[in-house]
Write a structure and sequence with these properties.
Blueprint (H helix, E strand, L loop, with lengths): L7 E4 L8 H15 L6 H18 L5 H15 L6 H8 L11 H9 L3 E6 L3 H8 L8 E4 H4 L6 H13 L7 E5 L2 H11 L2 E5 L22 E3 L2 H9 L3
Parallel strand pairs: 1-2, 1-4, 2-3, 4-5, 5-6
Helix pairs in contact: 2-3, 3-4, 5-10
Length: about 240
């Protein structure tokens, strides 16, 4: 299908619309300094990813801000210092400070003219509300891990998405899922047969950053290096 043939774009937020890697690393810097850890950004994010994925699997009903606080405490222990509850809470509350990618707001404003825009995010409602102020549009629907009770890549998140949109008359074939993370989004999108567009934000970097690695084949229908590139492709005829 051409881009213009879809009715709805469903978005991952953190990593796709919000530059969560810069936000996470900035919020981790006090702990890295206290622990005397001289890690590169990607190395620190890789350790974060390991603990985040494990904690999401262990406590799928925990809100994301609270989960991040637990992850911060786990990182302190892993890096050889005593966890500090106030530091942990500040890290969990940092989500609203994470910046949007420079192209996000303009691209979303254009896409809003042509599609229903929906969020499917591994976050809690309050944290997303803080981030939404940076995104420049009103979304037609917002589905969070807090609403669903599980974290992507759990298939339940995508089943929930498809069921809610079907209630609005939008069938799976008319939906394009737009995301950066192969692990969190494209693998489960493959599982439920959902078309997807990879926003390859890390195309000029090595490694997996703040997401868990994926081994084996992952299918996606489109690949763009930015969200603006997707908008430009639609503007050029889809």
């Amino acid at each position: 299908m051409a881009l213009r043939d879809y009715q709805a774009l469903t978005f991952d937020c953190y990593g796709t619309l919000i530059d969560w890697e810069s936000g996470i690393y900035t919020a981790l810097r006090p702990l890295l300094t206290r622990a005397g850890q001289d890690l590169s950004k990607d190395a620190a994010l890789g350790v974060f990813a390991t603990h985040e994925v494990a904690q999401q699997a262990a406590t799928p009903d925990m809100t994301y801000a609270a989960l991040l606080a637990v992850v911060h405490a786990r990182l302190a222990t892993a890096w050889g210092v005593t966890p500090d509850a106030a530091e942990d809470a500040r890290f969990g509350g940092s989500i609203g400070d994470w910046p949007a990618f420079p192209d996000t707001a303009e691209a979303l404003r254009y896409l809003k003219q042509h599609f229903k825009l929906v969020i499917l995010s591994n976050v809690d409602r309050d944290s997303f509300a803080a981030s939404n102020k940076r995104l420049g549009v009103t979304f037609d629907a917002i589905y969070t891990a807090q609403d669903i009770g599980s974290y992507k890549p759990d298939r339940r998140n995508f089943d929930y998405l498809l069921a809610r949109l079907a209630e609005q008359g939008i069938e799976k074939a008319a939906i394009l899922h737009v995301a950066q993370s192969l692990f969190h989004d494209h693998v489960p999108a493959n599982t439920v047969g959902l078309a997807s567009a990879w926003i390859d934000r890390r195309h000029d970097q090595q490694g997996w950053g703040a997401t868990a690695p994926v081994h084996g084949d992952v299918r996606y229908d489109y690949r763009f290096l930015s969200l603006q590139a997707l908008a430009d492709a639609h503007r050029a005829g889809g």
